[in-house]
Design goal:
5-stranded mixed β-sheet, D-Maltodextrin-Binding Protein, domain 2, alpha+beta, globular
């Protein structure tokens, strides 16, 4: 709205890569961030995971991904009702005994973005898994995060996909935990979560924006992020030349484990995923 009125207020965007791509990148509201990277320690790709700068846009210059947050496919469980050791694969979620005992964020909601990318593009899962999980397990769908977590903690449901408050609930002593899917057959995933950085075009303070970007992506900036970030959603920087002592073990990438990186330009367009989700949900509604 501000931009339509020719009011250019913000210099830099930091947040989810999917929203960044679908709103700002597609809306042509970004300048390339790549030329703004100046500090040698920021420019050097060997200081970053995989020996590369990871961009989440097809041009590889607009959306810089600075986090590598391992994901449990946003899968949580009630520790009184579920033995997590029973699960060796995502396909175990389709066991008939869990039918009617799962609550999930609506798959048409962008809140499941990285999880849906993982499930859709993983060669051992794909659209077939998505169809069977969301379409045949008699799942209760919600868009209310706190309510979903409350239901899980109360034992109304045994499993949850999308309970983003699960770690907070666990820290409060409730019988809620996240699966560690990195040990499952298909492995875990990692994404940038809310950790993508872009430079808005028509930035009112372009020089200050460059200073901030380079400090934020420096060793000091990323160490500060890991130390001072949200304790209920800990940040794991893609920088590999900084200590990880401020990152909880469950939020670090474990050497030797299998991970599927969903932050790739070819996975950025989620239209086919949301089309599939709408098809599944329409079929669910017709069953009622």
């Amino acid at each position: 709205t501000e931009r339509r009125a020719d009011k250019f207020i913000a210099d830099v965007y930091s947040g989810g890569a999917n929203g960044n791509f679908n709103v700002l990148y597609k809306g042509k509201a970004l300048d390339p961030i790549k030329p703004a990277l100046i500090l040698p320690e920021v420019v050097d790709p060997s200081k970053w995971y995989g020996g590369e700068h990871r961009y989440a846009d097809p041009d590889s210059k607009y959306i810089f991904a600075y986090l590598a947050n391992p994901s449990s496919a946003q899968l949580s469980f009630n520790a009184k009702l579920v033995n997590s050791k029973e699960f060796k694969s995502h396909w175990d979620l389709l066991n008939p005994k869990w039918r009617g005992k799962i609550v999930s964020l609506d798959p048409r909601d962008t809140g499941l973005g990285a999880t849906m990318q993982f499930l859709y593009f993983h060669p051992e899962l794909g659209p077939e898994f998505i169809k069977r999980f969301f379409g045949s397990m008699d799942i209760t769908f919600s868009r209310n995060f706190p309510q979903m977590t409350d239901w899980l903690a109360q034992g109304k449901f045994a499993l949850c996909m999308g309970c983003k408050d699960s770690l907070q609930a666990k820290n409060q002593g409730l019988p809620v935990d996240d699966f560690d899917t990195s040990g499952w057959k298909e492995g875990g995933s990692f994404s940038t979560g809310g950790g993508s950085l872009s430079l808005l075009n028509h930035a009112p303070h372009p020089n200050a924006a460059k200073v901030f970007i380079n400090w934020f992506l420096s060793r000091k900036g990323q160490m500060a992020l890991q130390k001072l970030g949200d304790p209920d959603d800990p940040a794991n920087s893609r920088r590999i030349d900084i200590p990880k002592t401020d990152v909880p073990l469950e939020n670090r990438l474990i050497e030797g484990r299998k991970y599927f990186d969903v932050v790739r330009p070819e996975y950025a367009d989620m239209k086919p995923i949301f089309d599939l989700a709408r098809e599944i949900m329409k079929a669910n509604e017709q069953k009622r």
